[in-house]
Design brief:
Length: about 475
């Protein structure tokens, strides 16, 4: 009497044993398939009616929704693994076995990250009411249905990316609840996933900018292993010194990948690894030494390892979004007349920055005038002889621009009055809210071109200039 299977692992194994190459029990890794049976829940209801298909196509449909990996192990036996499993790792990768870590970009299908993950359920597999007789019209209609999608949407990813999109998996789940549970696992992976190695000390060394790199580990099912490899890659990236070292014949005892300590006058001693070795034409040995450090491979599970659910959500920089300069400072002229105004602004700390776009507007002009659209510096000097407003924005390499940061023309003092008092003058008036200090000029006549700026700059009114003599021709402006 046949035993019917309906799980993902069970259905895949029955198909591989019965169809196509017809594998036998000796071709399967028993341990891996036992893990997969527990890691990949969900009833598979797979039926394609009279539509022609192959074992490979049918297996790919089942694998697609769950994201399971079906591959041959080192011994040639078939293994089934769930990359989204969060249980204890099935194996450990010691540091001695890691020769090099090479980061890989995210696959094109995940760039940018999708905001919603849809997993299909009940696709072309409604049960027949009469297996022996003719198929009723209603049953034929159900068999031709494309099924429905269970969707898990991520508000976190929606806030990260400019291009909103969805990724869909065909799948072969029978119930919506099981398809939705798998979609939610995909969402959790994309939201937190393996991108969880963030070193605050290195962010501080880089001036507060968090520089991210996404990596892909298609053959690793352990979250802990992924974190350990990513930490090693992060530490290696912080140690990039490489030295071409001409040595004498004593270096013949060294072999590639040996560890040495390099001490030069201009560089403090640091551990290095032999990455290049060749005999020199003059009889010596030319070595290539790359910086090495035990900290690259250090790993303390109690400190460094995090459960996936405990990992902070990392907001990746969006090349389509760039911040505006935080501040603009305009140089205040010290004379009545001037021919130019200098300004500077805070640099935008972004790896996607292309430059800055600067515009200015003199008081007598209604429209903004362009000064430069690809400024790389953080300062400029504008030729103008009247009060002038400025505005600035950052431009990303993608062409995206930030909002404007504006330095407006400050308003003038209203109700200004000068009152003669014993031994001097008292100035009074109303300051605009944006004014932080005043410049006061004095002249011995009504000719402002002869006015001289007082050294003191009041921050409030009323105000009395120090040692301001009173005379019939003194004038304050």
């Amino acid at each position: 009497m046949p035993i019917y299977v309906n799980s993902i692992a069970g259905t895949l194994r029955r198909m591989l044993e019965s169809l196509g190459l017809a594998y036998d029990a000796a071709d399967f890794d028993t341990t891996a398939w036992a893990f997969a049976e527990a890691d990949l829940p969900g009833i598979v209801a797979f039926h394609q009616c009279a539509i022609a298909t192959t074992t490979l196509s049918a297996a790919e449909d089942i694998l697609a929704g769950s994201g399971a990996i079906l591959a041959a192990g080192r011994g040639g036996k078939l293994r089934l693994a769930d990359p989204l499993a969060t249980d204890a790792p099935q194996f450990d990768l010691p540091a001695a076995c890691v020769l090099s870590c090479e980061p890989l970009p995210l696959p094109a299908s995940l760039r940018p990250l999708p905001r919603a993950i849809a997993v299909r359920w009940r696709r072309n597999h409604a049960p027949l009411s009469n297996m022996a007789g003719s198929v009723a019209a209603a049953d034929r209609q159900r068999l031709s249905q494309e099924g429905s999608f269970a969707r898990a949407e991520s508000s976190l990813i929606t806030s990260r990316v400019a291009q909103q999109r969805e990724i869909s998996f065909p799948a072969a789940y029978w119930t919506e609840a099981e398809a939705l549970a798998r979609a939610e696992k995909w969402r959790a992976l994309l939201e937190a996933g393996p991108r969880m190695v963030l070193a605050a000390n290195y962010v501080a060394e880089d001036g507060g900018e968090a520089i991210y790199r996404s990596m892909e580990f298609p053959l690793t099912t352990s979250v802990a292993t992924v974190q350990r490899i990513m930490k090693a890659e992060l530490e290696r990236n912080r140690r990039q010194r490489e030295v071409a070292f001409p040595a004498n014949l004593s270096a013949l005892r060294l072999r590639p990948w040996d560890s040495v300590t390099l001490a030069l006058d201009r560089l403090g001693p640091f551990p290095a690894r032999v990455t290049g070795w060749r005999l020199a034409p003059d009889g010596g040995v030319d070595l290539t030494l790359a910086e090495e450090d035990p900290a690259i491979w250090d790993w303390d599970p109690a400190v460094d390892e995090r459960a996936t659910g405990d990992s902070p959500s990392v907001v990746l920089p969006n090349p389509g979004v760039i911040a505006a300069p935080a501040t603009i400072s305009v140089e205040t002229p010290s004379g009545i007349a001037f021919t130019a105004l200098s300004l500077s602004w805070a640099a935008v700390g972004s790896a996607y920055l292309s430059g800055y776009e600067l515009e200015f507007r003199p008081a007598s002009v209604a429209a903004w005038q362009g000064y430069g659209g690809a400024l790389s510096a953080t300062a400029a000097s504008i030729a103008t002889s009247e009060p002038t407003a400025f505005r600035l924005r950052a431009v990303a390499r993608s062409g995206a621009v930030s909002g404007w940061q504006e330095a407006a023309i400050p308003g003038g003092v209203t109700a200004l009055a000068a009152l003669g008092i014993a031994g001097g003058v008292r100035l009074s008036g109303i300051l605009p809210p944006e004014v932080v200090r005043l410049q006061v000029f004095e002249a011995s006549s009504a000719d402002l071109s002869q006015a001289v700026k007082l050294a003191s700059e009041p921050t409030a009114l009323p105000w009395c200039p120090a040692s301001a003599p009173m005379g019939p021709n003194w004038r304050f402006e």
